[in-house]
Design goal:
- The protein is α/β, with parallel strands linked by helices and 184 residues long.
- It has a single domain, classed as P-loop containing nucleotide triphosphate hydrolases (Rossmann fold, 3-Layer(aba) Sandwich), CATH 3.40.50.300.
- Helix content is 45%, strand content 15%.
- This is ATP/GTP-binding protein.
- Pfam families: AAA_33.
Length: 184
Amino acid sequence: MERGTIPSHIQNLIRRSEDDPRPVVVMMCGIAGAGKTTLTKAILAANPAFTRLSIDAIIYARHGLYAADYPPSSYDSHQDEADILFLAEFRRLLQLRRDLVLDRSFYARADRDDFQREIEAAGARAVLVHLRAGEELLWRRICERSARERNADSALDISRELLRQYVEGFEEPVGEGEIVIDVT
């Protein structure tokens, strides 16, 4: 997948149609550096009816930049707050039958299952997109991102050790109806 483009099979899956007019909720799934936000922004550019929900964006809107506007020691409490706000906004927009892109890691199967249940209960359709990448590629991309100017989409400094924890704790979706994109 070329950065900033939407694979055609994904674009086709996220369209509403006369045969299936249900709202669509795209669940981005992957470890930091896999390209979730890049693909999310490409989806939004091509499909302006979609709304992006992002923990990082919520933290930025409420508290500013990590380590610049608030101390790193506040990150966990800001993330807890953002999780609550994310869930409330997700539910509100789902009830309004909006098309959504959930830009978060969805690292745990239980988290994915909970969201998919809510999506289906609201009469919407979930599209789980798993961006799969090897640890070395993830680390290279994280380093490249860190070298650029910090912004709302880089809400945390990720060390090699933290990336290792992410990789070890990530529960790959298997048999969940996922669409896998192998990131190269």
